[in-house]
Amino acid sequence: MQAWIGRHAQTALASLGKLAESPLATVLTVLVIGVTLALPGALQVLVKNALTVSGGWQGATDFSMYLQPDIDRDAADQLGRLLASRADIEQVTLVDADEALEAFAANSGFGAALDALDNNPLPHALVVRPIASLSLEASALLKQELENLPEADIVQLDTEWVSRFQAMLQLVRRGILLAAGMLGLALLVVIGNTIRLDIQNRRDEIEIMQLVGASDGFIRRPFLYTGFWYGLAGGLAAVVLVAVATALLSGPVSALAGLYGGTWRLAGLDLRETAVLVAVGVGLGLAGSWLATARHMRRIEPK
Amino acid sequence: MIRFDNVSKRYPGGHEALSNLMLDIDSGELVFVTGHSGAGKSTLLRLIGLIERPTRGQVLVDKRSTRGIGRRGLAAYRRDIGMVFQDHKLLFDRTVFDNVALPLVITGMRPRDIGKRVRAALDQVDLLAKEKQRPETLSSGEQQRVGIARAIVARPKIVIADEPTGNLDPELSRGIMTLFERFRDIGVTLLIASHDMSLITEMGHRRITLDHGRLTADSANPSGQQAFEID
Question: Which of A144, B86, B95, B142 is deepest in the core (most CB within 10 A)?
């Protein structure tokens, strides 16, 4: 077992040494892999942050609850206090019907027309702010409960578009997965082709190995390690590229968030995402070189 | 040890390199294969190394037909056969030591044991002092001896050598042939293709002669070749 590990370590190092012999070609290949992997990685970061932001909006979602016209101000105030004591509601603000009419008259330009009315057509309203951690489903349930109250006339969730936006993000996320799949396929071809050239360049060596009785597995091993190193380096390059992009964008994003009064910060790849990116790189490297060796090594026969 | 059972080999172009060859070689024999160039000497050796497959008939090695040896069995089969090539077939990006070590490395032998065996083999071909050099810094004769050391380092049962003295001066050639005799003495079966008639005659081992793919003379069986010629 120890000898086996030793042999593998030796082959792995030898493959690494071979790559170091032609640094430019190696760096270019690693960059191609890195950029290709960085693309879905960066998109993932984008979607993740967009979800966080829209999640913040959802937390601040207020219900506008218009009461029945026959509910007077005291009853409205009482209902507001009652609702505010609920665990899933953070705050309830009463909007007095007369104040609302005054504001409407002042802002809408319909002042004269409104003066012609005998009495105020507006009901009292409550602005209900649920607690920030309320989920989308619980929020929908709360809305239903409020609607079922006898005092309630209409309950509006003004920010229904938030959930639509989130649904869109899920769609985008699915799209990213598809794109990542296609890019992965492209990487298989890139790595496979690189290994194929390597195999062709070392044709004489492979023939000699075959003549002295090396098994296909033995001959294939260094090429698999080459693919492994390409994938590992490419995955790490992708992580660095995404980190650099995140760092470059985080300043402007903080500034933008500041303008909107937020303290929200751009999040980069977390540990799990980093691991996935590197693992995908390694997996594709191994798969690409495996395919190349399976396809091209068998064609080589000693002459 | 090696038996050719009515073997013919026809190359894709239609050229028949060997025709109905019958041949028996015992374990521990040293056999020279002679004939003009294109007579089928190389083909005969390549059929033993399974670099080529017969078109008809079969080759038996160690009482076993080589016909059933597929891609998987090939590597294990070749480990029992040491091959020496006229063009040496050395790896030029590795040292003499690493070249000779190759047949042992692929078997997964421990590095310490590999070192001992490689040095013993290099000692036999008198190249111990050059183990750290690369093949291109060696003369053709030295490269040939590296190839021989590689062929014998794994202690194969059979050694086949195609023109091992092809471009060596007479003295070096004799040295290499003496080396082959020593392997024969420890029980290795050797087939050596050569057209160096004076040297072969001087050494006096079994000699088979090929002419246009047919066996025309066998010094071990002077009267028997008639039978091979009748289809």
Answer: B142
CB A293 within 8 A of CB A209: no
Q: Please write the tens of the pLDDT for every residue from B13-22.
A: 888 899 999 9
> What is the rounded distance in angstroms from the CA atom of residue B192 to the CA atom of residue B36?
14
A210/B75 CB distance under 8 A:
yes
Q: Please give the pLDDT value at position B226.
A: 46
Place of tokens 């003496």: B178
- By CA distance, what is B109's nearest residue in A? A3
What residue type is assigned to position A225 of the chain?
Answer: Y
| Cα nearest neighbour of B52 on chain A | A303
| A291 or B225, greater pLDDT | A291
Nearest-neighbour CA in chain B from A1: distance (Å): 11
* pTM to 2 decimal places: 0.73
Of B71, B76, B89, the CB nearest to A213: B76
Indicate the residue of B79, B80, B110 with minimum beta-carbon distance to A3: B110
Residues of A with CB under 8 A from a CB of B: 3-4, 6-7, 204-205, 207-216, 218, 298, 301-303
For residues A217-224, average pLDDT: 92
Of A11, A15, A212, A216, which to mutate for an interface test with B (greatest number of B Cβ within 10 Å)? A212
What pLDDT, on the 0 to 100 scale, is given for residue A38? Answer: 94
Give the mean pLDDT of A88-106. 83
Torsion angle of C-alpha atoms B13, B15, B17, B19, degrees rounded to 10: 120
What is the Cα–Cα distance from A166 to A161, expressed in whole angstroms? 8
A213 closest CB neighbour out of B72, B78, B89: B78
C-alpha to C-alpha distance for B93 and B134, rounded to whole angstroms: 7
* Per-residue pLDDT reduced to its tens digit, B54-69: 999 999 998 889 998 9
CB B35 within 8 A of CB B209: yes
Q: What's the whole-number mean pLDDT along residues B197-211?
A: 89
The ipTM of this complex is 0.88
pLDDT tens for residues B141-185? 899 999 999 999 999 999 999 988 877 788 888 888 888 999 999
Give the Å distances, CA to CA, from A235 to A195, A197, A285, A287, A288.
17, 22, 10, 14, 14
Per-residue pLDDT of A137-163, as tens digits, reads: 787 888 888 888 888 888 887 666 777
Strand order in the sheet with B16-25: B16-25, B2-10, B56-61, B64-65
Contact residues, chain A, for B50 at CB < 8 Å: none
Judged on CB neighbours under 10 Å (0-12, 13-18, 19+), A14 is middle
Taking a C-beta distance cutoff of 8 angstroms, is the pair B36, B50 a contact?
no
